[in-house]
Amino acid sequence: MGRGKIVIRRIDNSTSRQVTFSKRRNGIFKKAKELGILCDAEVGLVIFSSTGRLYEYASSSMKSVIDRYGRAKEEQQLVANPNSELKYEAKLFK
Amino acid sequence: MGRGKIVIRRIDNSTSRQVTFSKRRNGIFKKAKELGILCDAEVGLVIFSSTGRLYEYASSSMKSVIDRYGRAKEEQQLVANPNSELKYEAKLFK
DNA sequence: ATTACTATGTATAAACA
DNA sequence: TTGTTTATACATAGTAA
């Protein structure tokens, strides 16, 4: 999206990579905010730059998102493998 | 981006909201992937729809992202409040 | 490291299949 | 509802400051 079409591969030049990172990071954060508002969704976005710096956005709070994520993954586990909800002893004697 | 300009506020009509959610969710996931590749960044994106369904993307793994996030936040704490790295007892007698 | 410009590529709103 | 179409709005690559 710009003066020329680009191929999606790692940008070798570190200055260009940094500039692109800044621009696209702003863009994706904007998109994340819009999605949360327009669609009434809870959104959490974590980005570590190649230099290791953390950037984050959460429509609620990151703690809320991560906690909810953990609970949702547990539920997925239960759906995928219903027996796992039984305690170890219960399974032994099932 | 489309036939008409829109205001960023919750979409009342639930069918429209769902359609917009699908389209924009695809869009933001694509952006997240591109950012990770182009800029050599580690990216984690978690989205809960208004119906509570989880959608996720991580350039590495979500566990890696969340763990790294936790460590980065700890570091931020230490930078913001250097004394907190001292143990409680040490602080008492500082 | 940001910011500005702007031509061009992309995402998507609305409509409809 | 789930996918096309397409006109339009938006994001951004290249560049310079």
Features:
53% helix, homodimer, 94 residues, two-stranded antiparallel sheet, elongated, alpha+beta, 13% strand
Report how far apart the termini of chain A are: 59 Å
Categorize the overall geometry of chain A. Answer: elongated
Structural class of chain A comes to alpha+beta
The overall strand count of chain A is 2
Which pair of protein chains has the largest interface, and what are the residue counts?
Answer: A-B, 42 and 42 residues
- In which order are the strands of the major sheet of chain A placed? 1-2
Characterize the biggest β-sheet of chain A.
2 strands, antiparallel
| Radius of gyration of chain A from CA coordinates | 20 Å
Strand content of chain A: 5-15%
Q: Give the fraction of residues assigned to helices of chain A.
A: 40-55%
The oligomeric state is homodimer
Average residue-wise pLDDT of chain A: 89
Subcellular location (chains A, B): Nucleus
Organism (chains A, B): Triticum turgidum subsp. durum (Durum wheat)
Keywords (chains A, B): DNA-binding, Nucleus, Transcription, Transcription regulation
Protein name (chains A, B): MADS-box domain-containing protein
